[in-house]
Amino acid sequence: MNSQAFQTPIEYLKGVGLSRAEVLKKELQIVNFEDLLRHFPYKHIDRTRFYKIKDIHPDWPYVQVIARLTHKEIIGEKHTRRLVVQAKDNTGVIELVWFQGIRWVEKTLVVGKAYILFGKPGFFNGKAQMAHPEIEPYSAGALQQKGNLTLQPAYNSTEKLKQFSLDSKGLQKLIAVLLEQHLKDIHENLPLYIINRFKLIARADAYRHIHFPEDTARLNEALHRLKFEELFFLQLKLLKNKLNHDQKFKGNIFGKVGEFFNEFYEYKLPFALTNSQKRVLKEIRQDTQRGVQMNRLLQGDVGSGKTVVALMSMLIAIDNGFQTCIMAPTEILANQHYQTIKELVGDDFIEVALLTGSTSQKARRVLHERLESGQLKILIGTHALIEDKVQYQNLGFVVIDEQHRFGVEQRSKLWRKNAIPPHILVMTATPIPRTLAMTLYGDLDISVIDELPAGRKPIQTVHFYENQRLRMFGFMKQEIAKGRQIYVVYPLIQESEKLDLKNLTDGIDVMAHEFPLPDYRISIVHGKLKPAEKQFEMNRFIKGETQIMVATTVIEVGVNIPNASVMIIENAERFGLSQLHQLRGRVGRGAEQSFCILMSHHKLSHDGKTRLDTMVKTNNGFEIAEIDLQLRGPGNIEGTQQSGVLDLKVANLVTDQELLIQARKCVEDIFEKDPQLALPENQILHHSFQTKGHGLSWNKIS
Ligand code: ADP
Ligand code: MG
Fold it and tell me: What pLDDT does residue 409 have?
């Protein structure tokens, strides 16, 4: 496309002018020709069909009928004054009503003549009715000429714009003018071989038909072309960034597998790795021998064994003379990683230390020294790890747990600690669907652990309604009698802390009554507690001094208490799917059969019911993420909110997954063959990186 023409300020379009330009800018952010061209219709109204009056259904948004006028009359006084017109076809009668422009309409309508009527149908006194229909004289020729047999675009507009005669119809006129004058300036931006391979229509045609299609087939072709283009250039950009990154950031080469890894593998690893774990280790192994900095995202459900994979990768780094660290989002989690790793590596094997906000000054001093001298090989901690005073001798491998809480900024702070940046492995237990990952983290490499270690008993999940509460209490007592511990979680209602707390305290009252001392002890954790109090209550539960922990969702992600084998979620319908899955993941850590009970009210929304049914049906985080994506759309999935890459205009990450995968694959093939985009057939793509306007959508994506 000749981007120059489309950068022209909108006021220069025929029929716009300064004042309309002003409102277009303010109301719809339409500043130039391109913006207007890309103000796509949100739907098309089907004017290809005519209906018989007797078939009209009041639920339909629009109908089009051909009818002959039989009577017209202005009736009523003042406010109720209106024009009422009767019309009929050979199946029935319809009444047309106007409240405005009465005189003028009355004059133009001729009783006895046939008209094409178009509008929203209604029913009044058992009679079909239409208020303010679009109306025009019927003749066989008029049908063709006026383009009535087409799909009519409907555009978003606003009250303000309507004051400037820029309702849907008004916008349609402007776009028609724009297309008429500048269709020739919409140039192709994809290579011919791609157009052929994916059977795409020409770009200019796509823009014309997305606004003014002759039929649904044309509209679909246009959508297909524009969606593909949008996804293609998004992936082109992401993968180009990745290539640039690979060229820019050298990485340490872990040339060998040595003593630490081998000894751990032979003598310390207490189980056989799952195939997924082996595959991911291999992927990391390959990454760390290329001489390019690794940026890998490791996704896997809670309990799928990410930590072991991380540890074993770290051991290889250490074998090659480097130091490593694990950064966790909270102190409790850092602590737990520390315990886990200490336990796995045993004593006298490798130096491991913990650094958090509560590490004493004295301990810190020792730790800094050992870090700088290179003796300390594994440092585990919170944000404290990236403070400036923490200096490594030779940091080579960084593990970041629960990525979405660490910004890019914080990550790069770690990089700056070395001349050659360390390899980075980001671990997350919040699986996101593959297509979303491709877009959100399109410039990272992604590894997936999609199986649980063998022998793990799947958590059994049931959904109880309020009238089954007694059964739930009975079940709790039975499990406590077996020596198990139980979580009871209440939703955190952000809008109303008061209500939230009331909900929780009511729950605690009932619970305390049902489970009295001295046989039962309850820990209570909620957002109003001071950190020390929270820690105290948590610890009582961890040590097994209490059997029940009643909490709001503030209990930490990833906390590992193997003896806690029952998760009860109150008002489960109020939680999102991924949150429910996360909560459930806190049980099922030990050898015992674990359970999750979802308590809900009788009244459930459709989506609420779907969420609970999904939880009962599957334990697989990826499946759950897929359904979450369907229910909520890509913009609401955890971790996506700030991401501009989801500002897709035509394509939809839920419904166009297949196309996204194709576009991604297509771009991968191109870069594989021609990383510099130097081949003649790829000139057009190379060019897209040099011109600002590039495709139409370029600046919108970045
Ligand atoms: P994640 O970090 O993915 O939640 P962890 O690495 O903490 O999972 O592993 C969860 C539990 O499973 C730990 O107790 C760990 O020792 C154990 N585990 C990990 N991998 C295996 C395996 N291949 N076979 C048996 N148990 C495993
Ligand atoms: Mg873990």
Answer: 57
Q: For Cα atoms 610, 635, 216, give the angle at the middle one, nearest 5 degrees.
A: 85
Is the Cβ–Cβ distance between 287 and 295 less than 8 Å?
Answer: no
Cα separation of 382 and 375, whole Å?
A: 20
How far away, in angstroms, is 462 Cα from ligand 1 center? Answer: 25
Q: Is residue 664 a contact partner of residue 215, using CB atoms and an 8 Å limit?
A: no
DSSP label of 32: B
For residue 365, give the H/E element and its range: helix 361-373
Atom of ligand 1 nearest to the CA of 562: 14
Q: Which ligand has its closest atom nearest to the C-alpha of 333?
A: 2
pLDDT above 70: residue 495: no
CA of residue 301 to ligand 2 center, whole Å: 9
Ligand 1 pocket member 306 (CB < 6 A): yes
- Of all atoms in ligand 1, which is nearest to the CA of residue 272? 23
**Separate counts of helices (H) and strands (E) for the chain:** 26, 22
Comparing CA positions, the residue from 562, 568, 557 lying closest to residue 522 is 568
Name the residue at shortest CA distance from atom 18 of ligand 1: 305
Per the document, the length of the chain is: 702
Q: Which residues touch 248 (CB under 8 Å, ≥6 apart)?
A: none
* pLDDT tens digits along 169-179: 899 999 999 99
| pLDDT of 128 over the 50 cut | yes
Q: Is the CB of 274 under 6 A from ligand 1?
A: yes
How far is it, in rounded angstroms, from Cα 354 to Cα 340?
A: 12
What does the alpha-carbon distance between residue 596 and residue 583 come to, in Å, rounded to a whole number? 9
> Distance (Å, rounded) from C-alpha 223 to C-alpha 471?
53
The strand pair at 121-124 and 63-75 is best described as unpaired
pLDDT, mean of residues 440-463: 86
Cα(334)–Cα(353) distance, integer angstroms: 11
Q: What is the DSSP letter of 634?
A: G
303 lines ligand 1 (CB under 6 A): yes
Collapsing DSSP to helix, strand or coil, 530 comes out as coil
Report the alpha-carbon distance of residue 605 to residue 335 in Å, rounded: 40
Domains and CATH numbers, the chain: 3-45+167-186 (no CATH), 49-149 (2.40.50.140), 259-287+304-428 (3.40.50.300), 460-618 (3.40.50.300)
Q: Is 277 a pocket residue for ligand 1 (Cβ < 6 Å)?
A: yes
The residues with which 460 forms a beta bridge, in sequence order, are 595
C-alpha dist (Å) from residue 473 to 338, 507, 547, 561, 594: 36, 13, 13, 21, 16
Q: Which residue shows structure tokens 């981007």?
A: 3
Contact 129, 163 (CB under 8 A): no
Q: pLDDT, tens digit, for every residue of 64-111?
A: 899 999 999 999 888 889 999 999 999 999 999 998 888 889 999 999
Give 336 Cα–ligand 1 centroid separation in angstroms.
13
Q: Please check whether residue 646 is in contact with residue 652, taking contact to mean a CB–CB distance below 8 angstroms.
A: no
Spatial distance between the Cα atoms of 439 and 437, rounded to a whole number of angstroms: 5
Other CB atoms within a 10 A radius of the CB of residue 10 amount to 22
SS3 at position 597: strand
Highest mean pLDDT among 26-30, 42-46, 137-141, 398-402: 26-30
Say how many Å lie between the CA of residue 590 and the centre of ligand 2.
Answer: 14
- Which residue type sits at 221? E
Share of the chain above pLDDT 90, in %: 54
Ligand 1 centre and the CA of 474: distance in Å? 32
